[in-house]
Amino acid sequence: MARSARSDEEIKRDVVDQLYWDARVDASKVEVRVDGGRVRLTGALPSLLARRAAVMDTWDVAGVEHVEDAMNVIYPGGRDELTDDLLRENVLTALGWSPDLESETLDAQVQGGRVTIVGMVNAFWKKALAEEIVKGLRGVLDVANHLAVVPLHDMLDRTIAESVEAALERNALLDPSGVTVEVHDGVVTLSGLADSPAAARLAYLAATYTPGVINVHNQLIVRPYR
Q1: Secondary structure (3-state) at 221
Q2: pTM for the complete prediction?
Q3: Could you give the strand order of the β-sheet that contains 30-35, starting from the edge strand earlier in sequence?
Q4: Count of CB atoms situated within 10 Å of the CB of 163
Q5: For residues 219 and 30, what is the distance between their CA atoms, to the nearest angstrom?
Q6: Which residues are within 8 A (CB) of 109 and not within 5 positions of it... i.e. 6 or more apart?
Q7: Does residue 140 contact residue 51 with C-beta atoms inside 8 Å?
Q8: Residue 76: pLDDT above 90?
């Protein structure tokens, strides 16, 4: 189905409206600029989750071809009462509370509110889960995820690729015909065309939750509004 091109003014209007719609985002703190369908977000939000929500909201707007996240995270009231040592304790406690993570294989380093997660998990989706947990904690300004993924069982790359392709085929919201799946040493690369940013994310999730995957490179290109 052909889609009409949209002006930068139309895209900006919808991005701003989308940000004001989302209760997770204080849109008054975000400045939106659009040039040729490429959106740049600046400003400051009170949490990493709010920052990510703003980026995802922007991707959901028709006509957006690229999103540059130039926003900062500034917590209300500052961080004077939350030291790096205390933040590290909070990070390890939060990770330990998750029934899906083996806390004894995880550790964290904190410097100036920036958290680096280190250690090992046995599935790629658990690596993503650990990052999400840490991003939701008060005082975290940024997260570097250095967790190694070591699957419990070795799987052939061909088997992983077939499993990802089957998951794509089962998803009623995806057109898998334009997606190419390649696997090398457990690393999945998705390439080709997706009908929307949402479709590209669904394809990424299909690979993320597949057994044996240790990393996912999402190189899907969203069909432009032209």
Answers
A1: strand
A2: 0.83
A3: 30-35, 38-45, 66-73
A4: 21
A5: 28
A6: 88, 115, 116, 118
A7: no
A8: no
Which residue, chain included where needed, has tokens 């975290």? 140
Question: Tokens 């083996």 identify what position?
Answer: 102
- pLDDT the model gives residue 1: 44
Q: Report whether pLDDT(158) > 60.
A: yes
Q: Does residue 51 have a pLDDT over 90?
A: yes
- In SS3 terms, the chain reads as CCCCCCCHHHHHHHHHHHHHHCCCCCHHHEEEEEECCEEEEEEEECCHHHHHHHHHHHHCCCCCCEEEEEEEECCCCCCCCCCHHHHHHHHHHHHHHCCCCCHHHEEEEEECCEEEEEEEECCHHHHHHHHHHHHCCCCCCEEEECCEECCCCCCCHHHHHHHHHHHHHHCCCCCHHHEEEEEECCEEEEEEEECCHHHHHHHHHHHHCCCCCCEEEECCEECCCC
User: What are the tens digits of pLDDT across the range 186-201?
Assistant: 999 999 999 888 899 9
Average pLDDT, the chain: 92
Q: At which residue do the structure tokens 């658990």 appear?
A: 126
The predicted-structure confidence for 102-136, as pLDDT tens digits, reads as follows 989 999 999 998 999 999 999 999 999 999 999 98
Q: How many separate helices (H) and strands (E) can be counted in the chain?
A: 6, 11
